[in-house]
Design a protein that fits this description.
alpha/beta, Rossmann fold, 6-stranded parallel sheet, 6 strands, 16% strand, binds flavin mononucleotide
Amino acid sequence: MTKILGISGSLRQGSFNTMLLNQAAKLAPEGIDFQIGTIKGIPLYDGDLEDSSGLPPAVQKLKTQVMESDGVLLVTPEYNNSMPGVFKNAIDWLTRPASDVTRVWGNRAVAVIGASPGNFGTILSQQAWLPVLRLLGTRPWFGDRLMVVRADSVFNEAGEIADEAVLAHLRKLMAGFSAFVAAGH
Ligand SMILES: Cc1cc2nc3c(=O)[nH]c(=O)nc-3n(C[C@H](O)[C@H](O)[C@H](O)COP(=O)(O)O)c2cc1C
C-alpha cells in the first residue's frame, strides 16, 4: 500500500488549511493509505534543548511518520507572503540531526497546496517552500498547483468543500500526486 502523510501548517481550530487537508484525505484514491500528521506540540527549535534532551516527542512522532511515508503533502497557509513560522519551525526540527536529512527527506515525494481567504491563495508561500524542498533533496511534484482563493467562501460549516470546481481540482490533484508517489516507491 502506498502511504502519503499530510501535514497542515496551521494550529488553529478553524483552519482552512486543515479543512483542505481533511478533504484531501477523503479524496485520496484507492490504494493510498493517507495519514494525517500534526505540528501541534512542537516547541520552537532551540539547539540547547536538542543538545540536552534530543528530539521532543511531537517531533520524533512526526519524523517517524514522514520516514514511514512514501510521500508528503504539505498544506501551507501564507503569512506575510511566505510560509508561517510555526510550519517552517516544525520542518526545521525534522531536519535534525542533520545526518538524518537524507533518511527523512531524500528522494521523498512532496507536494505543496494551500488555502487563504485572500485572492492569491498562498501562491507566495508555496513558492517559498521550493528552496527548502530543493535543499532537503526531496522529489517535488510539479504536476499541478492548487491555490484555494477566498477560502472563507469555499468551505461550508462542516469544513467540506462547497465549491464544485475546487472539489474537482483537488480530486484530480490527489490522483496525480498519488500516481507520482506510487510510481516512485
Ligand atoms: C501574521 C499573518 C500574516 C498573514 N499574511 C497573509 C499573506 O501574506 N497572504 C495571505 O493570503 N493571507 C495572509 N494572512 C491571512 C491568512 O491567510 C489567514 O489567516 C488564513 O486563514 C490562515 O490559514 P488557516 O486558516 O489555515 O489558519 C495572514 C495571517 C496572519 C495571521
